[in-house]
Design a protein that fits this description.
Length: about 170
């Protein structure tokens, strides 16, 4: 726990060898360096999926600059280039604005972690804003006993207004 956000001194992120932490070694084996949206992996058209490797990339970047560069490239794409929904929420898809519940577990935590490590208050605020913007769109408009849950996907290509329990778990995490 000492290297987690719950440790005594989590920021700035300490330099830790990937060989000393099996989870970092595993993450390093899954990161496939690229550019833009695919700086950390081939997202196959997804914006959030590569960002899910971002926290590990920040940690790995403390001892290997290629990961730091990839983490920065991912942040730059998310903030400056990714499509946005009409309310400003970052799209889960590269080709058109769509909001997917599982995005909440992938991009906002990475944005917040990167912001804390780089002492960037406006970027940290953006991570909070993204959570609010996603809630605005995905929160189901129901008076049922499960009021407050989120719909799965809102957008023109993959719309699925079902209440997906796994997506709600990711959003709640």
């Amino acid at each position: 726990p000492h290297i987690s956000v719950f440790g005594n001194l989590p920021f700035p992120v300490p330099a830790i060898s990937k060989d000393a932490v099996p989870a970092l070694s595993y993450a390093a084996s899954k990161i496939v360096l690229g550019e833009g949206v695919n700086s950390l992996s081939d997202g196959d058209g997804a914006v959030g999926d590569p960002a899910s490797l971002g926290v590990s990339a920040v940690m790995l970047g403390k001892t290997d600059g290629k990961y730091a560069t990839a983490a920065k490239g991912t942040i730059d794409y998310l903030i400056n280039s990714a499509p946005r929904f009409w309310n400003g929420a970052i799209s889960q898809r590269v080709d058109q604005p769509e909001l997917w519940a599982d995005f909440m577990y992938m991009a906002p935590p990475f944005i917040a972690y990167y912001a804390a490590d780089t002492n960037d208050a406006s970027l940290l605020q953006e991570s909070v804003n993204q959570c609010s913007l996603y809630r605005q769109i995905l929160q189901s408009n129901t008076t049922a006993s499960y009021h407050g849950v989120w719909e799965h996907i809102i957008g023109p290509q993959s719309q699925d207004t079902g209440i997906w329990s796994t997506g709600n778990g990711w959003a709640a995490a």
